[in-house]
Amino acid sequence: MQHHSSRLLSSFVLSSPSTKPITIRLPVSLIYNLKMMANKRDIPYQSFIKTILADRIKA
């Protein structure tokens, strides 16, 4: 059941209509690496970051 709920959480994070824009300063190299990883998965990098954050918070 835990695996199923984590998929629901990830899909909720990616499609949630109630989002709030934030500003966060990250090293350029980190942004580059995140974009490369997202590109390999064929998803937008901001969606990829949201998924990483959601997975980390639930842990």
TrEMBL record:
Pfam families: CopG_antitoxin
Domain of life: Bacteria
InterPro entries linked to this entry: CopG_antitoxin
Name of the featured protein: Toxin-antitoxin system HicB family antitoxin
Species this chain originates from: Candidatus Collierbacteria bacterium CG10_big_fil_rev_8_21_14_0_10_44_9
Lineage start: Bacteria, Candidatus Collieribacteriota
